Amino acid sequence: MARVFTDISISLDGYVAGPSPSLEDPLGVGGMQVHEWMFRLAAWREAHGLEGGDVGPESEVIDRNRAATGAVVMGRRMFSGGDGPWADDPNANGWWGDEPPFHTPVFVVTHHPREPLELRGTTFAFVTDGVAAAIELARAAAGDRDVSVGGGASVVQQALALGLLDELQVHTAPVLLGSGTPLFDGAAPRRLEIVETVASTHATFVRYRVA
Amino acid sequence: MARVFTDISISLDGYVAGPSPSLEDPLGVGGMQVHEWMFRLAAWREAHGLEGGDVGPESEVIDRNRAATGAVVMGRRMFSGGDGPWADDPNANGWWGDEPPFHTPVFVVTHHPREPLELRGTTFAFVTDGVAAAIELARAAAGDRDVSVGGGASVVQQALALGLLDELQVHTAPVLLGSGTPLFDGAAPRRLEIVETVASTHATFVRYRVA
Question: What is the ipTM of this complex?
């Protein structure tokens, strides 16, 4: 059976984004530093239509996940950009531009019903009955490929709490943010199993199997 | 100049100890799981007068730190056992038993003045004027060896905030506790530099240089 996994970046103090997100700074103050390891990689840049970039130990992780992913689940704020107040604009068109990098079906968990959106090979469907329903739809769409729970933190927390995540892939960036949006916020106590570690000077990647 | 470093274990969600510490469970509910990777190692067991144990990738880290350490700084609750109410008993004799594992001078940061204590090669001195003073005394005692800031979280947070930590060594255990004592709690935003990573299936060790 296909895996349901999340692949997400946090600061050493556990934040996926810094404080005070805004339109100019959708990842919050300092939040960009959490994702820097990724933005510099050719594997990420190519998927986002950019040239250049480095090849590092994490490149293989990005390439592998991208190849394995048959559908994506994300929260409304990840679709429409950061954690700011504009996230409540039901007509926001996403921050992924004219050519989103997914090229698979994407299921957006939201309270706002909306017609599906198709942008050059990526389809966005808006799911109003919760994370479990979105993951179920994504599983069906992905077939024997994997479902990537893209974020944000709230969707990952819900998927974990519902027992729907098979794997938690965490990149820890060497930065302290001090405040922001925590990835884990009162998670149920749970043991995990380390199945892979990829070390670099830019971030530490650990793949955990959820028991 | 000698390093001032901390070598501390956290859960994936960032806790050094679980909730509701008690005399029976000084690391709080589930907190033992954060330190399991260490308790199973021969390198740790030998230092604590126990036999047996495994050799793993982390053994070298423990041996190296132990050999490099010339003095230790710790908080009162790490001296007297966990985070519970007994920590306020000014006559508590520590939870390190008759033969503490340090075999170096230990400086305990506390509000309670107290005569020094000598236990088979480990001396405990009680410092009432704060973390910076304790680190200064430890530096002097360590000579050209390193100062280990042992914990708990509060002492590490203060040393970091005061710019007195050269290195932060973090072992992340594959467990979620959900609540407890966070290692980082409103730390000042700060970039770190990854200088070493040791992977195992029991925990992930990363050594960060504090810029």
Answer: 0.93
